[in-house]
């Protein structure tokens, strides 16, 4: 290993579509190799909060989100390079289908030369699974495909039919039987937060290790070939803008209702000099002493009654708002700032009332996508993913700028020191703008 290159076995788990079993299999592999005494570093493609929580528990290591557009090429490069210096195995879970999105999972795999294993739910097909996998493997020449993972195989004969139909250059990595014991718990925004179902997840992981071990195909249970990961020539995470938030304390809401927090964002705040403290709008009666607040996303709709009943906390946040200090409210945090919130059972509860408007859940319909927040402090990239709407809100400060579509993105509101939006911001995309946002006017 030279100073600027690190070699580490790596595998990129992708699929022809969502809901093929990528997270389950990635978690199973992470726990399997962890139990073999290996250090496994897992990454998740795209701006995902829930899958990384599951994968972190499975691997017993921190899990980072990688997105070339949102975080930047050099940021992703450094994350992988750093992991390769300490890990025995790197696993990357893709998002959606293999070629979906710009950039796609295939783009990320190709950029860092990580072999891709195609995860496919083969229920209801046999030789056709081989045809689809072959098409994916041959679609682009710059993506190296390690082989096929046949998920939810009905029998050994089922696996044999798929195996025999694959071309010689496309290995059959493993067949995994249908097993409800390994299914991860879900709710309306995706998987359930790991902190809520830790014991249940451990049972899933135990079953998943057995699930892997019982298969007759063992190729996937050997470490893949090492990949060379190179350190970036200019590391964007080490931008020298000083410590403009030195002496500032940022209080961050964190509990069952608010938990969508990138570890990368916490590292940025630390780098900028801020001291960070956490509090619970659900359980605490007192707001900690702070110069700024961050109300991140989460599931306030599942705890709306308790949030509205914590009058002491509501009063203190309202007083903080009246003092004109900076508050960043993202998605669920923004819903908490509105006048009312209607949950999935159509019950309506009063919220903080810092911002005019009413929030309401709307079942399966929602909005998602990558956007830039064009704030007065500077552009900060991020994403939206929600199953709610907000109505009767004031005129927005601006709208998010969509990654690939000319229509206006999410409304961004500003009232006193409050900046509120459905957007989840990725602070590392603009350190100076992030510092200015928490410094306030």
Automatic annotation (TrEMBL):
Name of the protein this chain belongs to = Cobyrinic acid a,c-diamide synthase
Domain called CobQ/CobB/MinD/ParA nucleotide binding: residue spans: 12-189
Quote the pathway field.
Answer: Cofactor biosynthesis; adenosylcobalamin biosynthesis
* Biological process according to GO: cobalamin biosynthetic process
Keyword field: ATP-binding, Cobalamin biosynthesis, Glutamine amidotransferase, Ligase, Magnesium, Nucleotide-binding
Cofactor(s) this protein requires: Mg(2+)
Q: Would the keyword DNA damage be found if you checked this record's keyword annotation?
A: no
* InterPro entries assigned to the protein according to its UniProt record, in alphabetical order: CbiA/CobB_synth, Class_I_gatase-like, CobQ/CobB/MinD/ParA_Nub-bd_dom, GATase_3, P-loop_NTPase
Boundaries of each CobB/CobQ-like glutamine amidotransferase domain copy?
A: 249-430
Task: For the region Disordered, give the residue spans.
Answer: 385-405
Pfam family for this entry, one = CbiA
Question: Which molecular function term from Gene Ontology is one that the record holds?
Answer: cobyrinic acid a,c-diamide synthase activity
The question of whether Nucleotide-binding is a record keyword is answered with yes
Q: Which family does it belong to?
A: Belongs to the CobB/CobQ family. CobQ subfamily.
Q: What NCBIfam families has UniProt attached to this entry? A: cobB (TIGR00379), PRK01077.1 (NF002204)
